[in-house]
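Subject: Sanity check before I submit

Could someone independently write out the structure tokens for this chain? I want to compare against mine line by line before I put it in a report. The sequence has 349 residues.
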Amino acid sequence: MKLRDSPSACPSLWRCLPCPLAELRLDLVLSSGQSFRWWESSPGAWTGVLEGRVWTLRQDRDRLWYTVYGEKDEHKEEERGGCPAKAAKLDGAETDRILRDYFQLDVSLSALYREWEAADPLFRKVAEDFPGVRVLRQDPIECLFSFICTSNNHISRITAMIERLCQAFGRHLCSIDARPFHAFPSLSALTGTDNEARLRALGFGYRAKFVSGSARAIAQGLGAEGLRQLRTAPYAEARKVLCALPGVGAKVADCVCLMSLDKAEAVPVDTHVWHIAQQRYSVVVGSKSLTPRAYQEIGDFFRGLWGPRAGWAQAVLFCADLRKGQELTSSRDQAWESRSQDHHGDGPP
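---
Independent answer below. Compare away.
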């Protein structure tokens, strides 16, 4: 199976939703550490797994384009002018609904930006360069186990770990340009007695114990459906349930609350956000480290500043700082490479 990179190449296989760039920027949202299942398959095209299907997304000024690939049909297709002859039949209403739900497109992001800009001059400075950053609404199981893997980690390594997890424990969906795609593992697939050892062999380190332990705890307790039903529970209650799981602290719990359990007021605070609060907002907490009390005080400060969707506003600032950090690292790497070549030709410095 080949990638359907452009709506103009195979228009009958693509659908679109009205969605201006001010409401969604795929390049910012899908690369900012909310989800780890998306890959920029070609410039401006993002391919990934959502609800057990493989999708490619694109956008123009006012539309979000998408196509969905058939399950395990790569051996059935014949190429005709670059378009697969046997494509997956789309239930347009259902696939539209899935994307609208995933990107929470019923929430007017432009209106929220105006509210946050009015309340916060620092946010106003960031918003102009980073429009369309919104919070995803992910499956709670996938979100929880993905963020358990984020402890002392960075996005590229987390992405590779999640890919290995899906290949080892998830259902194979299809292969595109010889690249296999798998669904995220079910809860039952993560509860095997030898799973901790298998995860350690996959490079999960100490996180292997937390993944397997949390899987067993959920399976023996509230179950996958009970986890999903935390969407209707109060924020404090959902957070408490999550923090009782192995390997889940306040930050991971808040990430899961915000990105899968409809708790828009959840503000994940790591040392990065802690420094933003101190250095840019002059937030004073009675501690030199990120204690539970300091964590709560920083979250409360931002909830007071930004209102009931404070977690969404924090996602914008986090994305902006992440992108600037990536650009700084890239420019440093390029400068080093240039300097090395200037002084040493093609050899090592």
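---
OP: Matches mine. For the report I'm noting this point. The mean pLDDT is 87.
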